[in-house]
Amino acid sequence: MSSNLVVIAYEDQFKAEEVRTMLRKMQQEYLIDLEDAVVAVKDDKGKVKLHQMYKLAAAGALSGGFWGALIGLIFMSPLLGMAVGASAGAVSGALTDVGINDDFMKNLAASFQNGTSVLFVLVRKATADKVLAELQGTGGKVIKTSLTHDEEAKLQEVLSSAKVELPAAD
Description:
Elements: E1 4-10, H1 15-28, E2 32-42, E3 48-51, H2 56-74, H3 78-95, H4 102-110, E4 116-126, H5 128-135, E5 141-145, H6 149-160
Helix pairs in contact: 2-3
């Protein structure tokens, strides 16, 4: 099963992160299955910074430290083993690129105006009607997608439409 790429640009530096937080909440509710969700921010000076969903270097250091300590225990030097394992894990984690290609994201984000943000999402599957209802009125412009033309048009319509608040129940 292949994932769908969706790239949405926002006119400020914070909106993409806000929408990613909404998507992660929906993932906890099993409404969407995200393979990757990265926010690229182009600051006022034109510098692009990627905010990854997964911190691979930290995860690599943690797992490397565990395996290094275990091997170190076997050879009677757990601290040395843990230090070597953590270093090796951090390096391998930093060199591992899962999901969306970093160069692609940086190059695309660099083409936007300063002070903007871009949300890059790889979606494995989603309960479309519920996800679209949550995203209604969040703004943004669909820049690139692997969705069908009809799905892309529906997504853009939902993002651009005003969110209707329902009256509170008595």
